[in-house]
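Good day; I would like, with your permission, to put a structural problem before you. What I wish to show you is a protein chain and, alongside it, a tokenised description of its three-dimensional fold. Please examine both parts with care and let me know of anything in them that strikes you as inconsistent. Thank you for your consideration; the sequence and its tokens are set out here:

***
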Amino acid sequence: MSLSSSYSARCGLAVLSGAVYSLAYPPLGWRWLVLLGIAGLLIALQGQVGTRARAIGFLHGMAAFGVGLSWLSQIFGPLAVVLWCVLAAFTAMFAEMQSRVVRRGIHGWRLAGFTALNWCGWEFIRAELFPLKFPWMTAGLAVGPNGMLPWIGVYGVSAFVVLAVALGVVWRWYGGLSVLGLILLAVVSFPDLPAPSANDPRALTVAGLQMEEAAIDEFIAATRKLPPAIRYVVWPEYAVPYDIRNDMREWKFVQSLCQERDITLTFGTQLRGVPGGGWRNIALTIDPEGTRGEHHKVHTVHFFDDGKSGKTARPIQTSHGKIGTPVCFDCDYEGVTRRMTAAGAEMFIVPMMDAKPWTARQHEQHGELFRIRACENGRWMFVCATSGVSQVIDPHGFVHARLPVLAEGPLIGTIRSETGLTFYTRFGWLVPWCVLGVAVVWWIILLFPAGEMTRPSDRAFSPS
């Protein structure tokens, strides 16, 4: 086979494995295909350097994100191609560093270890540090809820997934199977938790209204129809798409509703007149005694007028305990829920907005991120969306109840306050930072030709 045809085959393998990688996520959700998707990329990269390696990585990324995130075209039209290219650039940079480390003569288990660091480093930058932060479709997310998440978080799980594949591809098959066995054990031995008992003093029955583009009168009417046992109600993000406290008539209606039904209510609204101008997207919590508190959305949505970003992540003290009320996109990233948990949040009530035109695939993929956050921090989570997916999630990340995409109506479920902190909440969140630190040192070393890294004194005494 000629070199050109061999390279063409490698490019084809990169595209195919990228598409396979995307199938690990909803709507199909064939989770373990993530292993084949990464393995195909590593095989295609073997022996390739420079532009060829970068091209293989880029093709893999374009196939993975173009297929898996095809719904971006529903939102951005042709500009979605630009976003796929930006995301694929991270896979290209991963491929570039892989080629550089191989040229240094690093092989076997050392190469496998570097591969895990290299992947996790770029993934963490793409998901949490890059200005266009994008935490969807990470390798750890494909695994789903598992016993490793409360210890090392989703990015730590990504490192283990890639390590398992890399050991099998570049070293010995039994090395890869050993790590894969640990991951499988973490999945199969991690049970979903029983629903809280109605007699449990720490249990709380919550109702969420999954309704999109409904007027406030419709939310009030739907709340009045809920069973009398409901003690907490949540309306979705943008349920009241203006500053309700500037409308005394409607503000009194909502306050009267809480008094009439004896409920605590969290709903999405706005805060106008913030310092420096503009507005903020907030989750406002009130009860029969008045306003309990508000959370200002920290992670506003890219390219949309989603208000000014908030700066704090603290729970709200209610009669039911300390409640974390992150808003939608806040749960895509690890920081807000972790900081709220560390500050005392005992459970989460989350208003969310995923618009109807954004396709079922987008809704389902987004819903998985909330399960990861619940599992990392060991907290019950009640998510109320505009058009799906509303869900009740236990501290192990498993769904106990949900309303499907585009359904309309109430979701009722029981959650429970928890006070213990996971290792992840305390220290494990530092794992990807440590991995990134080691990876950056490697990347800097690899940017220099091997000869330039040798000290002058070494050259002076080296044999001719």
About this structure: DSSP finds 16 helices and twelve strands in the chain. Residues 452-464 have pLDDT under 50 and may be disordered. The radius of gyration is 24 Å.
